[in-house]
Amino acid sequence: MPQRQGSLDQAPTGVPLTIVRLDESDLSLKLMEMGCLPGEKLEILHRASGGDPLAIKVMEYVLGLRAREAAAVWVSWGDTPLRNLWNSQEP
């Protein structure tokens, strides 16, 4: 699958994602403190009806984000097999 990029609120559910960048906003510091850093791996686990909020797995915990918060996080997907996403020991 070719690599794609977009905001986290528009990314697909259940696929491995990599944070590319954060928008310059008041939320940036809050998101970074919660583990949303460029290069970090994450996955959207669930979307509530209507798409807000989202449950994402980042680092070793589940985080709830509102759609406006997720829109500030830019991610890429399509190049990492899911089985390797949470176990960096595997090749």
Please name the defining characteristics of this protein.
mainly beta; SH3 type barrels; 6 strands; 12% helix; disordered C terminus; single chain; 6-stranded antiparallel beta sheet; 91 residues
Tell me what you see in this structure:
This protein is mostly beta strands. The chain has a single domain (about 5-80), classed as Ferrous iron transport protein A (FeoA) (SH3 type barrels). It is built from two helices and six strands, in the order ββαβββαβ. Strands 1-6-2-3-4-5 form a six-stranded antiparallel β-sheet. The longest helix has 7 residues, at about 25-35. It is globular. The two termini are about 20 Å apart.
Brief synopsis:
By secondary structure, this protein is mainly β. It has helices at 27-33, 67-70, and strands spanning 4-7, 17-22, 41-47, 54-58, 61-65, 73-77.
- Count of domain modules: 1
Q: Under CATH, the topology is which?
A: SH3 type barrels
Number of helices: 2
Q: Estimate the mean pLDDT confidence.
A: 85
Outline type: globular
> CATH superfamily membership, which one?
Ferrous iron transport protein A (FeoA)
Strand order across the largest sheet: 1-6-2-3-4-5
Ranges with pLDDT <50 over ≥5 residues? 81-91
Element-by-element helix/strand order: EEHEEEHE
Helix fraction?
10-25%
Assess the beta-strand content as a share of residues: 35-45%
CATH architecture: Roll
- Class from helix and strand fractions: mainly beta
What's the CATH class, please?
Answer: Mainly Beta
